[in-house]
Specification:
seven-stranded parallel β-sheet, Rossmann fold, Glyco_trans_1, transferase, Glycosyltransferase_grp1, single chain, glycosyltransferase, alpha/beta
């Protein structure tokens, strides 16, 4: 074996220093539709890991956030602030078309990239064989929640199998998504799967993150607060929280539900609060700036998002990073049982998992878990401290970035 460990038989003059220099020049190409300033959980996932990789060894090929002057200006301003190279495709949706594949291959060669990370395996991972032919030595494809849905439909299931055959590693969020995606892969590809969940910035989300100021701003000082931070869509279960409020208020009369976030379900939720007779105990903040999210978590005593699976398993929670952000903030959590959400909770230690459906059971279980937490400050403190410690042990971004670096 050559001393540099990169050849079976070393050429004349080959040395370990050559190997180190060669390794230092290796770069990674990220190919993704999901990248800021486009908002969303996958976007935050990719950006947080990218920031923890060596910037001089990273090139991002991403779609444009949205058309028009405003979108272009926001995208250009964001890209200019990044420590790594960002190349934008003019389209708002990257697909594995011949044109996109050719451009990705050209970027790979121009920047000397030897590894590729597909920010979402489906569908961009279909470009894997072409990028390998262009010179990529390692291909990693990350899955989220939607690939678990792909695994249930015959046509998309076959595409997932092709992605598994054409890449070196497919990553998964947790056991729920792993088991479903693995069923669509060949046994060889399934055996190469590696867990890579999203993480938490424990320095940003922490106890004392500014919740007192948010409480004062919203007039909630001194009141027990259940907080839910999420996009307002039916799957997240904000309606379950509203329906559980009458039972909660019967035991904790001054309790309030703080719903943080925007989305298409807001009008329905406001109407439900009125019809249920609890509108005075519900606060809607609408969308809030990302910089204020930690403080909004901190405004709560308990975090709850009783999410549920919809559309026959096609609309499902991949993991639920919000539970971990709440744990990092020192709050006990109540999660729904949709998809991989239970992976973000240690039942009885950091919080509880309740049924997301059927509705009657979900409402009853949610109220039964929230009432004792709101009534018992010591229980909240114990669970909050355990959740904070668990995030520091397992869910820090630097640990997850190191795992991806090894895969690449």
């Amino acid at each position: 074996m050559c001393p540099c460990e990169s050849h079976e038989a070393g050429p004349p003059g080959c040395s370990g220093r050559v190997r180190l220099l060669s390794a230092a020049m290796r770069k990674t190409l990220i190919v993704t539709n999901d990248f800021p300033p486009r908002p969303g959980g996958i976007q935050a996932f990719l950006h947080n890991i990218a920031l923890r990789l060596e910037p001089e060894r990273l090139v991002v090929y991403a779609s444009t956030w949205k058309r028009g002057r405003e979108g272009a200006e926001a995208t250009a301003a964001f890209d200019a602030e990044q420590p790594f190279t960002v190349v934008r495709d003019p389209t708002t949706l990257l697909l594995p078309t011949p044109r996109v594949t050719r451009r990705a291959s050209r970027l790979l060669r121009e920047h000397g990239c030897e590894s590729v990370w597909f920010g979402a395996a489906a569908p961009l991972g279909l470009m894997g064989p072409a990028l390998r032919a262009a010179g990529a030595r390692r291909l990693v494809a990350t899955t989220h929640g939607h690939e678990a849905g792909w695994a249930q439909l015959p046509g998309s299931r076959q595409l997932l199998r092709r992605i598994g055959e054409g890449t070196d590693t497919i990553t998964y969020l947790g056991e729920y998504t792993r088991s479903r995606i693995a069923s669509a892969l060949t046994p060889e590809a399934a055996a190469r799967m590696v867990q890579l969940p999203p993480g938490v910035d424990e320095k940003t989300f922490h106890p004392g993150s500014g919740g007192t100021e948010i409480r004062e701003r919203l007039g909630l000082t001194g009141r027990p607060v259940v907080v839910c931070v999420s996009r307002l869509v039916p799957r997240k279960g904000q309606d379950t929280l509203i329906l559980a409020l009458p039972a909660i208020l019967a035991h904790v009369p001054d309790a309030v539900l703080l719903i943080v976030g925007g989305g298409p379900y807001e009008k329905d939720l406001r109407r439900l609060a009125r019809e249920t007779g609890v509108a005075d105990a519900v606060r809607f903040t609408g969308a809030v700036p990302w910089s204020e999210l930690p403080a909004h978590y901190g405004a709560g005593d308990v975090f709850a998002m009783p999410c549920r699976t919809r559309r026959g398993g096609l609309d499902v929670e991949g993991l639920g990073i919000v539970y971990l952000e709440a744990s990092a903030t020192g709050l006990p959590v109540v999660a729904g049982d949709s998809g991989g959400a239970p992976d973000a909770v240690l039942p009885g230690e950091t919080g509880w998992v309740v049924r997301g459906a059927p509705r009657e059971a979900a409402v009853r279980e949610t109220a039964d878990r929230l009432v004792p937490l709101l009534q018992d400050p010591e229980l909240r403190r114990t669970m909050g401290e355990r959740g904070r410690a668990w995030v520091e042990e397992k869910w820090r971004w630097d640990l997850l970035a190191a795992r991806l670096r090894e895969l690449l």
